[in-house]
Design a protein that fits this description.
Elements lengths: L1 H14 L2 H73 L6 H5 L2 H5 L13 H8 L9 H42 L4 H46 L1
Helix pairs in contact: 1-2, 2-5, 2-7, 6-7
Protein name: DUF6090 family protein
Keywords: Membrane, Transmembrane, Transmembrane helix
Pfam family, one: DUF6090
Length: 231
């Protein structure tokens, strides 16, 4: 093709037809520019397609992570419900020798048992660390995703940490006393107050987890809608 154009230029120069040569040269430049623009357009289209394919992969992985989170929320809520039932039974104990024989110590373990949520952040961490945040086109979706994970961090620093502190510092030392001997009225009152506090913490945790579970489910729906647009 290049040889063909060169031949035309030589012929025009040989004929001394400067006007035709200039017109031809301008036409050739225009064709080159058009060719470059087409090549750039194809390259940009390929890059956009790569970005869309990568976005679809990330969104599908986020959906998998969120479904994993929902399963963990459900598991902890189920375990919290069992703990609450144990604590309610514990409220009726007198914590004496007779109760010891009725395994009150086993029930007391509910006071130092706790569960906390750890989100599956493999995909969002990968998106951030790789600098591919802009791959996700919807700013509204991206804001919701980051809000979800910020909320999980707040939960870990809030109710989850409060339960851990309770288990470790509020009731932990008491368990040894109650295992060793029967208790006086003051100790019983303190223990019942501890039980009520633990019940409040667990109910609060369950409420927060249910709310976050709904948030995760709504995110999955939004991601599903975004995937439909990307197809």
């Amino acid at each position: 093709m290049i040889k063909f154009f060169r031949k035309i230029r030589r012929n025009l120069l040989t004929e001394g037809n400067t006007g035709k040569y200039l017109k031809y040269a301008i036409g050739e430049i225009v064709l080159v520019v058009i060719g470059i623009l087409i090549a750039l357009g194809i390259n940009n289209w390929n890059e956009r397609k790569k970005d869309r394919d990568k976005e679809i992969v990330y969104l599908n992985r986020l959906t998998t992570n969120l479904n994993s989170d929902i399963k963990l929320y459900n598991l902890i809520i189920k375990k919290d419900s069992a703990l609450i039932e144990s604590l309610k039974k514990l409220q009726s104990f007198n914590f004496n020798i007779s109760d010891k024989e009725n395994k009150s110590t086993e029930a007391l373990n509910a006071l130092i048992t706790g569960y906390h949520f750890t989100p599956n952040k493999t995909t969002i961490d990968n998106i951030v660390s790789s600098g591919n945040i802009e791959i996700i086109r919807s700013n509204y979706l991206l804001e919701d995703i980051f809000l979800y994970y910020r909320t999980t961090e707040d939960i870990q620093k809030g109710i989850d940490e409060a339960i851990s502190n309770y288990n470790r510092s509020i009731f932990g030392p008491w368990l040894i006393k109650f295992e060793a001997k029967s208790t006086n009225e003051k100790q019983k009152n303190q223990l019942h107050n501890s039980i009520n506090l633990k019940l409040d913490l667990l109910n609060n945790q369950m409420e927060i987890y249910n709310s976050q579970k709904i948030f995760a489910a709504s995110l999955i729906d939004k991601i599903s809608n975004e995937l439909e647009i990307s197809r």
